[in-house]
Amino acid sequence: MNREGRFVTEGEVQKTRTPFERDRDRILYSDAFRRLAQVTQVVSANEGRFFHNRLTHSLKVAQFGRRSAQILSAQPGAANLVSPDVVEAACLAHDLGHPPFGHVAEYELDRRVRELAQVPDGFEGNAQSFRVVTRLALRREGVEGLNLTRATLNALLKYPWSRNDEKKGGKKWGHYEEDKLSFDFAREMGPAGDQRSIEAEIMDWSDDVTYAVHDVEDSFRAGMIPLDRLLLGGPTRDDFVNGLGHSQVEADAFFSTLNSLDVPKLVRPFHGSSAQRGTLNWFSSQLINRFIDGRCARHRPRRNLVLSECRACWLVLRARRRSARPRSRARPARSAPRRTPSRPARGR
User: Fold this and answer.
1) Which of 53, 57, 97, 279 has the most CB atoms around it within 10 Å of its CB?
2) What's the predicted TM-score (pTM) here?
3) Pick from 137, 140, 134, 150: nearest CA to 6
4) Inter-residue contact 225 to 212 (CB < 8 Å)
5) pLDDT value at position 92?
6) Residue-range definition of the domain harbouring residue 131
């Protein structure tokens, strides 16, 4: 038993790639991965080439995860605990089972599967991702799934338990009961109980940071977040801070960080000029870099660590992301036109 083991033993393979590199390549070339181009984050898939979809999101999560794992694996004694290839593979696969329209569609699918199809397990996006790589995605005839290594499957388990785990309340789970054999195989080397592997933790952290930063970017482009007024300060910023539920100290630290990023083109509503798009990309790049280079990676808020400028960045970014989600079909207030002047042809 080892981390490189596969559920179905494979014959001789060329030694030009490691087993974990093969995992990454199998996911990248799968039909399930290509499907993510039509699964969106903030706007519909035909809104324009400037918005993220689940495919571009997954690629950026993989980049963030790999860089973070490389930094961590370089620490003394950590080389054998973290594999950048495993983290990257898990990041690429983490959204394979998620439906369009986000959690709203997920909850509706769950209700219909349980009530109409009479399937007790229902539907859950993370459990579906695990099913895709272990059963549904076809790599070769006669073998279910992509036959990934034990380490990569374990790194994909953000919620290493089933719906039937009474301690977890059935809100989130990582595998269906029908997939328990694959789950047991993935977890055979631990960690014990419901603890995630360190590579699963990095995958989850990478997803959270990337999703938050790029949702802010897309929401500003779509006119859902008045980033220009938040940067300038005044009543809009005060109302935003009051509605966050976090301390004024954290909010002040966050806006102090933003003001240090030198993004003057963002103090006006989004209008789609090349200069403003470049500034917005630079804005996102600097935020991502802050989390990757170590100033933010040490201060994940769920660990209740000491307050830092980087923790404030994360808390407010996540709150912004949540506030940008439309709660109804009503048209949200906007600070700029929804579409950019150069809208691409439909079907791009």
Assistant:
1) 57
2) 0.80
3) 150
4) no
5) 98
6) 19-186
